[in-house]
Amino acid sequence: HVQLVESGGGSVQEGGSRRLSCAASGVTYGTYCMAWFRQAPGKEREGVASIDFYGDAITYADSVRGRFTISIDNTKAIAYLQMSSLKPEDTAMYSCAAVSVAPRCGLDTHFNEWGQGTQVTVS
Question: For the CA atoms of 41, 48, 65, 86, what is the dihedral angle to 10 degrees?
Answer without folding.
Answer: 40
